[in-house]
Amino acid sequence: MIVVEHLSGGYEDVPLVKDISFTVEKGKILGILGPNGSGKSTLLKVLSGILPTTTGMVMIDGKAIHSYNARALAKKMAVLPQLHANAFSNSVREVVSLGRYPHQTGFFASWSARDEQAVQHAMLQTGVKRYEQTPMEFLSGGEQQRVFVAQALAQTAEILLLDEPTNHLDIAHQRQILDMVRKEAMECGLTVVMVLHDMNLASLYCDELLLMEGGQMRAIGAPHEVIIASQIEDVYQARVATYAHPEMPKPQITMMPTAGDRQQRAMIKKEHFTITEHYIQLQTEIPLKIVSSAVHNPGIGWFSCLLNRSVPGDYVISDVKREVNEFLQRENFAPTSTVVMLTAVPTSLVAIQEFSASFGNMIVAVTAGVGNAVDVSRVHERQDEPYIGTINTWVIINGCLSEEAFLQATMTATEAKTKALQSENIRDARSGTIATGTATDSLLIAATQKGEEMLYAGPITEVGKTIAKGVFETTVQAIKNYKNQF
Ligand SMILES: Nc1ncnc2c1ncn2[C@@H]1O[C@H](COP(=O)(O)OP(=O)(O)OP(=O)(O)O)[C@@H](O)[C@H]1O
What we know:
- The strands form five sheets. Strands 13, 14, 15, 16, 17, 18, 19 and 21 form an eight-stranded mixed beta sheet that branches. The chain has a six-stranded mixed beta sheet with strand order 6-7-8-3-9-10, sandwiched between helices.
- By secondary structure, it is of the alpha/beta class.
- The protein starts with a strand and ends with a helix.
- A hairpin with a 6-residue loop joins strand 17 and strand 18 (362-368).
- Helix 4 packs antiparallel against helix 5 (141-154).
- The chain is 29% helix and 27% strand.
- It has two domains: 2-255, 3-Layer(aba) Sandwich (Rossmann fold), CATH 3.40.50; 270-484, 4-Layer Sandwich (L-amino peptidase D-ALA esterase/amidase).
- The model has no long low-confidence stretch (mean pLDDT 91).
- It has twelve helices and 22 strands.
- The protein binds adenosine-5'-triphosphate (ATP).
- Adenosine-5'-triphosphate is lined by residues 11, 16, 34, 36-42.
- It holds the Pfam family CbiZ.
- It comes from Lysinibacillus macroides.
- This is Iron ABC transporter ATPase.
- Keywords: ATP-binding, Nucleotide-binding, Translocase, Transport.
- One of its GO terms (molecular function) is ATP hydrolysis activity.
């Protein structure tokens, strides 16, 4: 455990880092963030006693660090500096072994089994064991960085101070080093303070973050309390947006480049649709921001090719993802820029309609296979698997939607679809009640993201009204097309 109280210090009489206070409990990781020159490295040097303290104190195990002698302090605290001493004539093993220096009485004279074990463990954990006998100058920058991390680890101190430990490392080795640091913290109780430039890595790996600004603490807390877009924009003077990590409850952040042609309108028109026997396709010049429940590329993303593919009624859907991938390759569609839905309805029965609005026009395309429609409030009564049937709905908006608006658009579109089924008297064959959809409906909301942002898309808004009218009328038309085929 390390306790820092009102710490100030640095290079000159006027302290560069000012009034820093925090506690890092045993086994926890604190990340230090901040713009270039904000004092992160200086803080680490003051913490480790390399630079003088003007006021305040750093305590380890309840004792101020200046009350430890150099060797005793080195047993408590290991430091990985940002710039490393030139160790180029040495082998990797020799450089890592230097980490055992505080444990030696006469250098290498008292090399113990424990020293050897610490060096071996550190080399294995950082993946440098295979370069053991290699001279340092033969290693790449990233490999050398891992050797220095190994050296700090070999010191087997309770506290590890790391200044940009992932500098020079590729994504796999960033993960390896940070996974290793986290494992040592969780399993061996290592306490870690590390400077990281990459806010996303800091958010993923650190328990708490300290955001520095002009040598002072701007914020401290859990990642979600520190990585707040407005705060980061203020400190870094850069436009950013935050988003959720796909697997971890940790915020992630991305830079927002200066907006280019956002105001320029792009027009997706009905003529941009192509209908063949096998699919309905919309190919756009610019990628659209899409939220969908498609079978291929579902979720949120940017795509320029939309396919509603007609498959035979006996299509086996057990490995649908692989089959769709094979189809895309066979037909020369780019798998990464194409969204695919499947329908058993012949493509000729699609309804595509265009609606105008002040923000730009909107196109709605629907295939309505309502032969096996269900009343969603009654499906729990069924013992059998609901039959497959599909209403595929696409809403293409020439406009810019906020995240809330995308979600509201899905609700508005779903309500309008349900109303269309009611209007066309489509019933659940089992319950006899009005159907609300089918068991495998799919929805796609796409927007060009040009023009002024529309914050909401409920029926109180113009875009919501247009979605509601568009989906209702187009679904009614698609149902009529479906009925008329018989
Ligand atoms: N040896 C030095 N003597 C005097 N001032 C220094 C010295 N080293 C750095 N500084 C100054 O201290 C300030 C903070 O530097 P520091 O290295 O702590 O920033 P940092 O937040 O780690 O930056 P970076 O993100 O660029 O690594 C800078 O303005 C820098 O110019």
